């Protein structure tokens, strides 16, 4: 297995998630790359980098899919991106601490498409509930578990 890397779909990533990732990158010394189509402020660290891509539909997602390797971790709320990285053998985790897997991704894609149809028809409005302390804690716990498992596997 190659060196573990974390990729972040950073355009819509909540600030608290980025802060958790910055601390985790330094703590476990894992390269964490934030990919966005806008400039990002990141702390000075050998373990954190930002890649700015051109604007356009799915440009950041496409770069992540191109660069991700089996065993890497991808942080994203974008379900189609999660499906692609899971297919490549990477782990996808959303900012609310939910892990996308080969077992649940098809259902997530179907629900996403259904909700998109409902919004288009005016049946549903709004998006996900606000991001708060509960979601932040769930993400931090899920990331810690995931990194502990990956690091243990690497050292075995």
TrEMBL record:
CDD domains to which the protein is assigned, alphabetical = PIN_YqxD-like
* InterPro entries found in the cross-reference section: UPF0178
Signal sequence residues? none
Q: Which domain of life is it from?
A: Bacteria
One family name in Pfam for this protein: DUF188
NCBIfam families from the UniProt entry: PRK00124.1 (NF001095)
Family (UniProt): Belongs to the UPF0178 family.
Q: What's the protein called, per UniProt?
A: UPF0178 protein FKG94_03860
